[in-house]
Specification:
431 residues, TIM Barrel, 2 domains, alpha/beta
Amino acid sequence: MKKENIYIIIHTVIKYCGDIMSEPWKSNMWFVSPFNYDEDLRKKFSLPKRVIFHDTTLRDGEQQAGIIFSKYDKITIAKALNRIGVDRIEVGIPGISNDDREVIRALVAASLEAKIYSWCRNIKLDISIAKECESQGVIIEVPASKPMIEKVYSTSIEELERILPENLQYAKSEGMETSVLLVDATRSDIETIKKIISIAEKYCDGIAISDTFGSITPFAMFYLISKIREFTKKPIEVHCHNDFGLATANTIAAVAAGACCVHTTVIGIGERAGNAPLGEVALALKLLMGVESNIKLKELYRISDIVAKYSGISIPSNKPIVGENIFRIESEQAAMWLIKGEPLLAYPFTKELVGNPKFEITLSKKSGINTLKLKLNELKINVPEEKYTEILNRIYQHSLEKKNALTDEEILEILESLGVYKYKIEDYMRA
């Protein structure tokens, strides 16, 4: 290669990298709000450069009513999670489930890059069983609010002070990583949280703050994590539920305050309204916050389909990031944005970024000339523009009667009835 060509390549790479650094809210694959990167705003944050993804699809996700994963399901999903770059996979509760023990052994034997974790009660037997299965880490649950401590778990701070250090030391002596999950932490008080952390921090690798009932706001989550970081140097993890639809926002707020590990489930499955969805958290951290992770974003659509299949849960069509409507255009306004601009003026990110294989145009009463143009182009059909109004009138009436968008076959029937197109056998097959 000629020397001048090498200089051109180097210059191009430097310029491209410089553009990304100077405008992290915009690239050839996304375009989000520049206010996310305002310097005065970000001075208030304590963002880590990279976050760890601890996925609990196979444990907390399975706790959603109506979901049962078989051993095969769990192994298949875990391997898919490993492929997309999840750092830690919480497989289940080996202290209770013999199936989970077998799955953990199988996954450890598979030598995945992701670390295999078990969920344990604050009981030595649970930890011992996790070790027997060769679990590489344990999440040890402890109650963190007074009502939980006294009424649900029938224990006390004094008993936690006696038992928790012993169990953590035992887990560490057996070579396992340890995180303490503070259940109902967001409905507790700062002194109780501080006391429990002081009991655990000497012996654990991380503290997981759980918004168990999804009852905190992002502003309060930022405040809480900031306060906790004032009295502990231990890595902070965050485990959010979605009862108020704030699991993703609360997870992002926790990271902005300095949390460095996020607990997620694929498509947000989990107890009651579910957990923070992996796809939403991963994309928001990367695009909106500029925080890196090991997650392969282009695999988000595929992993969502896998978990939907094995859980039996249908993905809502308007589900953020992975819903089928995300890259479907029906309204004239959206079509105008796309035709008169470019994809990133009609979308905040490209379908390629998240691995969505399909871009679709549908027609209904909400459609107009631009939408029709897009659809005709998609169908590879040329129609005189003077016929557009008549075609759209037919589409308008048909969609009102149907109370839905038209199929390709119905559109082709309208075109044929108006004498502007003649069916071909391949059109029947396409429709």
